[in-house]
Prior knowledge:
By secondary structure, the protein is α+β, with helices and mostly antiparallel strands. Helices cover 41% and strands 15% of the residues. α3 (114-135) runs antiparallel to α11 (334-348) and α6 (194-214) crosses α12 (351-361). It is globular. The two termini are 29 Å apart. Mean pLDDT is 96; it is low at 1-7.
Amino acid sequence: MSTRQVSNRNDPVIESRDQLVEPMAKGEKPREAWRIGTEHEKFVYRTADHAAPSYSEPGGIRDLLLALQDYGWTTIEEDSDTGPNVIAMGGPDGAVSLEPAGQLELSGAPLENLHQTCAETGRHLAQVKTIGDKLGLAYLGVGLWPDKTREELPIMPKGRYDIMLRHMPRVGTMGLDMMLRTCTIQTNLDYSSEADMVQKFRVSLALQPLATALFANSPFLEGKPNGFLSYRSHIWSDTDPARTGMLPFVFDEGFGYERYVDYMLDVPMYFVFRNGRYIDAAGQSFRDFLDGKLPALPGEKPTRSDWIDHLSTAFPEVRLKSFLEMRGADGGPWSRICALPALWVGLLYDQTALDAAWDLVKDWDMDGREALRASVPKLGLDAPLPGGGKLRDIAAEVLAIARGGLAARGKLNEAGDNETGYLQPLDEIVSTGRTPAERLLDLYHGAWGGKVDPIYEAKSF
């Protein structure tokens, strides 16, 4: 069974500002309807030579996607000049899709608790590992390709990626690295009201550098240490300043949906999707689009789906759509795929925990938050806190708040365990003071003898 990815031309033309606010306002849900959506990417490589497989080669990325049909997944196609390409798979566990150089991503289903999230992750990894064994493929769980140049990596046949690959070098020096050489873990969480969204946005934005430090897992570039613990996070510092960063306005008095709309209207466009194809509108203004003056589509006005598409083209440390996305973490192993949503669910889904986390960060000024964000890719837990001290000084307290939030939720598995156990990998990082990246560097300078190739054996799923 195949579903063609096409644009729905029945969605309404945007005639008023209320329609721009609508996706965020419609995201409001009562607490009992809050869900957890987890996304995780991993690098695909050929076991024979550690090369990144192309889309169309025998046993490559397309064959990997198609093999998921054996587990009940269905194809999602996109038209191209040479015909339709399978660019994702849909199923009960969400969607399996491709990043620009073939990084494989599971965008998980919205789930009620972390036990379900971790089980979903386990099902997905078991499926792709079984397929990989047949195709001669395996999967690396780190935040950055440790040994590949840009030129060694394939490009996936997705129209929006063609546009982004052309545009990125115009606006930053590392956008291509972001697209081709990085992997992340993200979690998507709900809010009950505009005020709830604001508090959660502020807390998660202020504490996103802590997640970056705890999950730092990208210390190698092209076979050598790169001077950073999270080079993936460093890459975002010069990808495209118009659509990245710490969003100072989130902490301004009166922040809400309307202010985020203003921000998104100032984010330059990438594309417009029409009749199954992506039209290049890179660098053009959505404000002009609202006035029917978009150079890429003169005389046309945007529809609701155009606005939804545009909301997905900003990449701040926390992103608002109809939910909040936590975007600060490097890719990593199964245990940390479960730990990332555990951290944020614990902090944001219990009001007592959320208030305690806000008390911890509410007096930080914007200069301090920006300095923390700028220093954490290199310094990790030693990054300076606003007002003095180091990030490691609050790490245990933040985890304790998250643990209290998870315990208060009382979500038990069949064995009677609550969700707090999923924080264990982070407890170990905080108690030892060593980030995953620092442990990789210890191996590089020790047992690995100054080589990164052993990472494939040590850090594959």
